[in-house]
Design brief:
201 residues; mainly alpha; 3-stranded antiparallel β-sheet; two-stranded parallel sheet
């Protein structure tokens, strides 16, 4: 069924069309065509001690299998990271970082769409059955794609596809996303002024 297909863009024109949608809102992200986020799937405890140790997440006190991402990934500047360069270089890096952080919201929407719609992904999966886990993930993604393409209800599509009209509230959310998302934490953070450092040449 074509509407449920999982596919990578097949031509330079498709990549460019996707990038055009992104840079319309985030002018610094030239060359970007997608966003992605890691995924922790809960799994049952393994009988094999080595596998159990490999899947245990001490922070969450549960067992998970996590996705591995390979290739060229751009991530936002980390708190406390020193930014070096001339004034213009630092301003360019910070502008890119603001666009990247704002665009990163699409990855969160995508993960929420999958995990929120398919409750089975929140239940521990069989650690010993790689094929069953792969099949479940594929079914969930295909059903998500089918719903998005047939019904049209998808937050990413709503924001990036030119079918819906932009308004001032929408622009405000995107322009100030990083401040809105972490505003409460930042108000209570006594060391905020130390998070990013600029060193000019």
């Amino acid at each position: 069924m074509p509407d449920a297909a999982i596919r990578y863009p097949g031509s330079v024109e498709e990549f460019q069309a996707l990038n055009d949608l992104i840079i319309e809102r985030h002018s610094q992200l030239k060359g970007a065509f997608a966003s992605l986020d890691g995924l922790n799937l809960p799994v049952q405890t393994a009988e094999d001690e080595e596998m159990e140790n490999a899947t245990y997440n001490g922070w969450l006190c549960e067992h998970f299998i996590s996705s591995q991402i390979e290739g060229k990934i751009r991530a936002p500047i980390r708190s406390g990271q020193v930014i070096r360069g001339t004034t213009a270089e630092i301003e360019d890096k910070l502008a890119f970082d603001r666009d990247l952080l704002s665009y990163r919201q699409t990855a969160e929407w995508g993960m929420r769409a999958l995990q929120g719609s398919f409750g089975r992904l929140r239940l521990p999966l069989d650690i010993g059955d790689t094929d069953a886990r792969g099949n479940l993930l594929e079914i969930c993604v295909r059903l998500h794609n089918l719903r998005t393409r047939r019904v049209g209800h998808n937050q990413i599509r709503t924001v990036y596809m030119p079918l819906w009209r932009q308004n001032e509230e929408d622009e405000e959310v995107w322009a100030n996303f990083e401040n809105m998302l972490f505003s409460e934490q930042r108000r209570n953070d006594r060391v905020t002024r130390f998070h990013n450092f600029a060193e000019y040449n």
